[in-house]
Design a protein that fits this description.
By secondary structure, the chain is mainly alpha-helical. Helix content is about 80%, strand content about 0%. It is rod-shaped.
């Protein structure tokens, strides 16, 4: 399973404020509707709403997949950390044992 990008490398939307984006889509709607009939406007608006719904479902699924991947990676990191901690404890015990042997040999 691949992880989906949450942040694009470069995007026009980064350069605009929320108000500017709202204004952009407002103006786009007005401009697009100017040369259309009422039926064409209804058809286009319904089509855009359907497109938006599909995009929202896709975005939600991508978030879900990213969350699962992230949780799995966190679990793997935790297991790895626990293994490393166990190895460190074993090494510390071995060092203590070797130090005792060195001390006995010095006597």
């Amino acid at each position: 399973m691949k992880e989906y990008k949450e942040v694009p490398d470069d995007s026009l939307f980064y350069d605009l404020t929320p108000e500017e984006i709202a204004l952009l889509f407002y103006l786009l709607g007005i401009i697009m509707a100017q040369s259309l009939t009422i039926d064409e406007i209804n058809l286009l608006a319904n089509g855009l709403l359907e497109t938006a719904q599909v995009m929202l479902v896709i975005a939600a699924q991508r978030v879900l997949i990213n969350d699962v991947i992230s949780a799995h990676q966190d679990e793997e990191e935790k297991k790895s950390t626990e293994k490393l901690e166990l190895e460190v404890k074993k090494l510390q015990a071995k060092i203590e044992q070797l130090q005792k042997q060195i001390n006995e040999l010095k006597r």
